[in-house]
Design brief:
Layout: E1 2-3, E2 7-9, E3 15-17, E4 25-26, E5 37-40, E6 43-46, E7 53-59, E8 73-78, H1 92-95, H2 109-118, E9 123-126, H3 135-147, E10 151-156, H4 162-168, E11 174-178, H5 184-191, H6 196-207, E12 211-218, H7 226-240, E13 246-250, H8 267-279, E14 294-295, E15 302-309, E16 312-317
Parallel strand pairs: 8-9, 9-10, 10-11, 11-12, 12-13
Antiparallel strand pairs: 1-6, 2-3, 3-4, 5-6, 7-8, 14-15, 15-16
Helix pairs in contact: 2-3, 7-8
């Protein structure tokens, strides 16, 4: 185990974890909601530090990030635990595990960076589980990665504290945030959280200039309401900017904890979400129902062509000069 940061002693004598918006007050020999931050011998410890899960190189589009270094590979990993209780999690097995439930060898921050370089990846992604809960580990990796010329990416539920954001933002190059709904009742019922902290963090990240993309799983009966999606797309366009890429993605019940509660997303629901996003003024909506190419907003010419090969996305770029090959307008793609 590793000594944690991001905590202080509360007035009632407990230690309050300040890493995410739950602000768990933890008593001796107990852990927080995430199950991997625990008080041991009077200090808060991270049980997940160094215990990397599911390390692999993959296309950056898989995260998904469509406007950040398309066509490159990223070294993705996670650790056990999560600060959400979502049944529709895409990484359910690792997110529901506590460190003591999984036999995971230690991987140093330097080894993660070395693995990424050996695999020919241009970035490292904290993406296999919620990176907020292993922020100390992530930060050490991010500093080493930056010094080695690699980019740093997070895929997150967006429930981190401002303290956490202020620590990671200087080292963070791109992030995809899950905005699952605009309804607080959904967040309370499905995620065990609230929506407003996620919205606040989205505004904060955008204001600090980090490349941002947003994903919304379209879950039948939970997050497929046209009225709610109109509010969500409107929030992105109004509070962040119409240039923010939005990914309405399908829900897959076979990977959820309660597959009987929601059927898989259908093509019509995804197409409807895509239309809603475009009607709200979003310039780049990737709903997976047609070709998810990126085209120039001014002349419509293709900037990035995407297709799936052997089940994985691949990308071909036509904006090598940083501009549209036709009208020469600035490309929205970030390198």
């Amino acid at each position: 185990m590793h000594a944690a940061g991001f905590y202080h002693e509360a007035s009632d004598g407990t230690l309050q974890c300040d890493l995410c918006r739950h602000y768990c007050r933890i008593r001796p020999d107990r852990s927080g909601l995430c199950r991997v931050r625990r008080i041991v011998d009077g200090r808060l410890c991270s049980l997940s530090f160094g215990h990397a899960l599911a390390q692999t190189g993959e296309p950056v589009e898989q995260l998904p990030l469509y406007h950040f270094k398309p066509g490159t590979s990223t070294w993705a990993f996670g650790t056990p635990g999560c600060n959400f209780t979502s049944a529709d999690c895409l990484n359910l097995e690792s997110s529901r595990s506590g460190r003591d439930e999984v036999d995971i060898p230690f991987t140093s921050p330097g080894q993660i960076v070395e693995n990424a370089i050996k695999a020919g990846c241009s970035s490292i992604s904290c993406s296999r589980s919620e990176p907020t809960i292993f922020a100390e580990y992530a930060l050490e990796i991010m500093r080493l990665a930056r010094n080695a010329g690699l980019r740093n990416i997070w895929v997150s539920n967006g429930y981190m504290s401002t303290n956490c954001l202020d620590a990671i933002l200087p080292w963070l190059d791109a992030i995809n945030i899950d905005l699952r709904s605009m309804d607080d009742a959904y967040y309370r019922r499905i995620c065990g959280a609230r929506v407003e902290p996620v919205l606040e963090n989205l505004r904060y990240i955008y204001a600090n200039g980090v490349h941002l993309e947003i994903t919304t799983p379209i879950t039948a009966g939970h997050s497929d309401s046209p009225a709610m999606l109109e509010r969500l797309a409107g929030f992105i366009a109004r509070d962040l900017g119409p240039e923010i890429p939005w990914h309405p993605i399908p829900f897959h019940p076979r990977i959820s904890g309660k597959p009987e509660e929601s059927p898989a997303s259908n093509a019509a629901a995804l197409a409807s979400a895509g239309t809603i996003g475009r009607n709200a003024g979003l310039l780049y909506v990737y709903s997976g129902t047609a070709q998810d190419d990126t085209v120039c907003r001014y002349c419509g010419k293709k900037l990035v062509s995407r297709r799936k090969m052997l089940g994985h996305p691949s990308a071909v770029r036509y904006d090598a000069t940083g501009a549209c090959p036709s009208c020469k307008a600035l490309s929205p793609i970030k390198d």
